[in-house]
Design a protein that fits this description.
It holds the Pfam family Lum_binding. Catalyzes the dismutation of two molecules of 6,7-dimethyl-8-ribityllumazine, resulting in the formation of riboflavin and 5-amino-6-(D-ribitylamino)uracil. Its EC number is 2.5.1.9. It comes from Streptomyces edwardsiae. Keywords: Repeat, Riboflavin biosynthesis, Transferase. It is globular, with a radius of gyration of 18 Å. By secondary structure, it is α+β, with helices and mostly antiparallel strands. Helix content is 16%, strand content 40%. A hairpin with a 4-residue loop joins strand 7 and strand 8. It has a six-stranded antiparallel barrel with strand order 1-2-5-4-3-6. It has a six-stranded antiparallel barrel with strand order 7-8-11-10-9-12. The protein has three helices and twelve strands, in the order βββββαββββββαβα.
């Protein structure tokens, strides 16, 4: 489990295209400290498994399904990525519960800068809009953010200077894809209410 608090901006240093997958080599001095084979690291919000670790770099395999459902397929050598290690048991939950399971992708639609923050508008797939509410939580490229406005096909977030400086949202421009993970609690509530409705219908 992650919290959506990005630890560092990493970089793709090598890309190996396989028949039905892709192997990335990534540089991240912070997240590789103490890393070992089999550990999990979130890359732009996608939970990946460490295959090899040497110095401040690690490799991770990404299967075709993940490449299809996320924006990782657009990464190339030199791409900057958000990196986060799993949260430790007993540590503070600085963001919200993030699984590292991408629900879909959005696109940066626009940026509105101001003196102390920046409003970013992001497209929202139709099948995810019911989970996104004003002042609710959403994960964008692995970053835990609060929704400012929520519409049927887009939402906005307000970014402080720290987020702009330390994550990919500081450099992404209109047209760039982003990974989206909605609040998992909303999905569980929907499922439980749906099962209850089915049960009540059967009882009648």
């Amino acid at each position: 489990m992650f919290t959506g608090i990005v630890e560092e901006l990493g970089e793709i240093t090598a890309v190996e295209n396989l028949d039905d997958a892709c192997r990335f080599r990534l540089r991240g001095p912070v997240v590789t400290e103490g890393a070992k084979h089999g550990d999990s690291i979130a890359v732009n919000g996608v939970c990946l498994t460490v295959v090899e670790h040497e110095g401040d770099e690690f490799t991770a395999d990404v299967m075709a399904e993940t490449l299809k459902r996320s924006s990782l397929g657009a990464l190339a050598i030199g791409s900057r990525v958000n990196l986060e290690r799993p949260t430790a048991v007993g540590s503070r939950l600085g963001g919200h519960i993030v699984q590292g399971h991408v629900d879909g992708t959005g696109e940066i639609l626009g940026r509105e800068p101001s003196e102390h923050w920046e409003i970013v508008k992001i497209s929202l797939p139709a099948d995810l809009s019911r989970y996104v509410v004003e002042k609710g939580s959403i994960t964008v490229d692995g970053i835990s953010l609060t929704v400012v406005d929520a519409a049927a096909d887009f939402f906005t977030v307000s970014l402080i200077p720290t987020t702009l400086a330390l994550t990919t949202l500081g450099i992404k421009q209109p047209g760039d894809p982003v990974n989206l993970e909605v609040d998992v609690i909303a999905k569980y509530v929907e499922r439980m209410l749906g099962d209850r409705a089915i049960g009540e219908g059967t009882a009648r």
